[in-house]
């Protein structure tokens, strides 16, 4: 059953870097194997970038920035290119989704949704830069001040393996919309879909050198680390684990680089007794099992009011058992294969820890019929106490912890009782409680009686160990631009004159 997987059409011969408009190998020729998560067999080689490759890519991006024309083009002209990118991504959506699903193990229907979202990211920032207004301030009769917004230079973009193409678009869109040039370092587990960017950008007419990409690892001396430490890269936008974020923060410190960090999460979904239970169960199932549970904003801790706790756990476990595990390429699949055997081992080790710490009510093993590959049954633990590791630590797979609470105060205390603070989901029909809880919960984003649906204009980011700064909408424009204040004297000079004779 599990060997039923065919490589998608259009697979490149191997995955290379893309520097100054050319596909190139690593200068030292080093490559690494990329594996298919259904078979765990290597299916393609990818170039492994080091400092020398990053140096070339940054030099190309810097030249494109210094010599133009991209940074000084009219926003309308840049927006046309971005809209063409969006059109191409849409047109090639099926091909992209097939590659993403094959490489990452994401269910194909969800991969298709992510490809559409990637197109939207470019369209959205095309609109935003055309509509962009900047502040101006007047001091009547004396002074006018205005803000001169400028692209910053070479942006380093470092991305993770979950929904890789969409998360790359989330950084590429605003970074290039605002006139910067970029070096992208895709995640080493999932470099396949990123190999389509060069063709998409070339066809859309993005000038040579504005987009560069170096594949490979993040560790010291490799591509990610070298990008962070490159003196000609003043900005780093990073999405990944909190511990990697800490390393990057320290490595970027000597240059005081601009940093945007979207990090890990262990987000609570709080279900009060007065909630619409059907809606809450559907949404919290989707919230942790969609995207294979490999989702930063997953509601992976469900806190449930005591009076409905038993009913909730019973219904939730029953529904989790009905979630369809299948091959990534099967359109009816709801949960497919985790990205990599290393990650599979990590998730399964938490499942074993959970069996010691709490009550297993669904899943807990390998699904029947899937003897190989990184398949995990949708797994539900009940009666999880806040000191449990499965309550505190990010598992990043289809595993959820359910915990009862007695009062609003206890619910809040439990919700805030981790080092993370990315998202929170609140289910109640009491509007006042919903608002008060939102104010007090320690999270960058809150969804009230809602699934994780995000309007692209809203700020996105976490607090505590979940992130630093916000992107999304105008916050992305702010991150990728310098805001220079220009002061114009309109009247007499009011400065005191020193050394007057
Ligand atoms: P990771 O931190 O292991 O790797 C992310 C990227 O950083 C990869 O490209 C990797 O090669 C690179 N990297 C690793 N070490 C580096 C270093 N020292 N210097 C520079 N680059 C380095 O994360 P992952 O396992 O790929 O992704 C999963 C994590 O990402 C989870 O914790 C998840 O919550 C988080 N995530 C957060 C968001 C968000 O928006 N908050 C979104 C998606 C994923």
Write up this protein:
With 501 residues, this protein is α/β, with parallel strands linked by helices. The chain contains 15 helices and 20 strands. The chain folds into two domains: 17-263 and 462-485, Aldehyde Dehydrogenase, Chain A, domain 1, CATH 3.40.605; 268-448, Aldehyde Dehydrogenase, Chain A, domain 2. The strands form five sheets. Strands 14-15-16-13-12-17-18 form a seven-stranded mixed sheet, with helices on both faces. Strands 9-8-7-10-11-19 form a six-stranded mixed sheet, sandwiched between helices. A three-stranded antiparallel sheet has the order 5-6-20. Helix 2 packs across helix 6 (197-204), helix 3 crosses helix 4 and helix 4 runs parallel beside helix 5. The model has no long low-confidence stretch (mean pLDDT 96). Bound molecules: nicotinamide-adenine-dinucleotide. Residues 158-162, 167, 185, 187-188, 217-219, 224-225, 228, 239-241, 244, 247-248, 262-265, 296, 394, 396, 422, 462, 467 line the site of nicotinamide-adenine-dinucleotide (NAD). Residues 158-162, 167, 185, 187-188, 217-219, 224-225, 228, 239-241, 244, 247-248, 262-265, 296, 394, 396, 422, 462, 467 line the site of nicotinamide-adenine-dinucleotide.
Describe how the helices and strands are arranged:
Layout: E1 17-19, E2 22-24, E3 31-36, E4 41-47, H1 51-67, H2 75-91, H3 93-104, H4 108-131, E5 136-139, E6 143-151, E7 154-158, H5 164-177, E8 181-185, H6 197-204, E9 211-213, H7 223-228, E10 235-239, H8 242-252, E11 258-262, E12 268-271, H9 277-289, E13 301-305, H10 306-322, H11 341-357, E14 359-362, E15 379-382, H12 389-392, E16 399-405, H13 408-415, E17 423-427, H14 431-440, E18 445-448, E19 467-468, H15 474-479, E20 481-489
Parallel strand pairs: 7-8, 7-10, 8-9, 10-11, 12-13, 12-17, 13-16, 15-16, 17-18
Antiparallel strand pairs: 1-2, 3-4, 5-6, 6-20, 11-19, 14-15
This protein binds nicotinamide-adenine-dinucleotide.
């Amino acid at each position: 059953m599990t060997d039923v997987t065919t490589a998608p059409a259009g697979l490149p011969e191997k995955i290379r870097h893309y520097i100054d408009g050319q596909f190139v190998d690593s200068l030292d020729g080093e490559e690494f194997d990329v594996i298919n998560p259904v078979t765990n067999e290597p299916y393609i080689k990818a170039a492994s970038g080091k400092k020398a490759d990053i140096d070339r890519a940054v030099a190309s991006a810097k030249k494109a920035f210094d010599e133009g024309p991209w940074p000084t083009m009219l926003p309308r002209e840049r927006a046309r290119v971005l809209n063409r990118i969006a059109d191409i991504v849409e047109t090639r959506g099926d091909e992209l989704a097939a590659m993403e699903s094959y490489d990452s193990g994401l269910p194909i229907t969800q991969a298709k949704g992510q490809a559409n979202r990637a197109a939207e990211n470019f369209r959205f920032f095309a609109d935003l830069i055309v509509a962009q207004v900047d502040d101006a301030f007047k001091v009547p009769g004396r002074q006018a001040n205005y803000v001169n917004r400028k692209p910053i230079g070479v942006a380093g973009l470092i991305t993770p393996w979950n929904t890789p193409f969409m998360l790359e678009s989330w950084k590429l869109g605003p970074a290039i919309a605002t006139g910067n040039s970029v070096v992208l370092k895709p995640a080493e587990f999932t470099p396949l879909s990123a190999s389509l960017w060069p063709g998409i950008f070339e066809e859309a007419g993005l000038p040579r050198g504005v987009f560069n990409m170096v594949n490979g690892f993040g560790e010291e001396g490799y591509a990610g680390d070298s990008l962070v430490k490159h003196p000609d890269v003043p900005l780093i936008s990073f999405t990944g684990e909190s511990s990697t974020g800490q390393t990057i923060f320290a490595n970027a410190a000597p240059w005081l680089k601009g940093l945007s960090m979207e990090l890990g999460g262990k987000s609570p979904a709080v279900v009060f007794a007065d909630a619409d239970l059907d809606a809450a169960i559907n949404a919290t199932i989707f919230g942790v099992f969609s995207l294979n549970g490999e989702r930063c904003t997953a509601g992976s801790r469900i806190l449930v009011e005591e009076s409905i706790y038993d009913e909730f756990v019973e219904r939730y476990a029953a529904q989790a058992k009905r979630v369809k595990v299948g091959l990534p390429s099967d359109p009816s699949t709801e949960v497919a294969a985790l990205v990599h055997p290393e990650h599979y081992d990590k998730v399964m080790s938490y499942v074993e820890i959970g069996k010691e710490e709490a009550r297993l009510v669904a899943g807990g093993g390998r699904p029947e019929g899937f003897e190989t590959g990184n398949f995990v049954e949708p797994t539900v633990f009940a009666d999880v106490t806040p000191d449990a590791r499965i309550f505190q630590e990010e598992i990043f797979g289809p595993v959820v912890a359910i915990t009862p609470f007695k009062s609003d105060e206890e619910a809040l205390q439990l919700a805030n009782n981790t080092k993370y603070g990315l998202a929170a989901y609140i289910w109640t029909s009491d509007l006042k409680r919903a608002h008060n809880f939102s104010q007090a919960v320690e999270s960058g984003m809150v969804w009230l009686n809602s699934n994780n649906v995000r309007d692209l204009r809203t700020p996105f980011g976490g607090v505590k160990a979940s992130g630093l700064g916000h992107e999304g909408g105008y916050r992305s424009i702010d991150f990728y631009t310098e805001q220079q204040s220009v002061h114009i004297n309109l009247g007499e000079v009011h400065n005191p004159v020193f050394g007057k004779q």
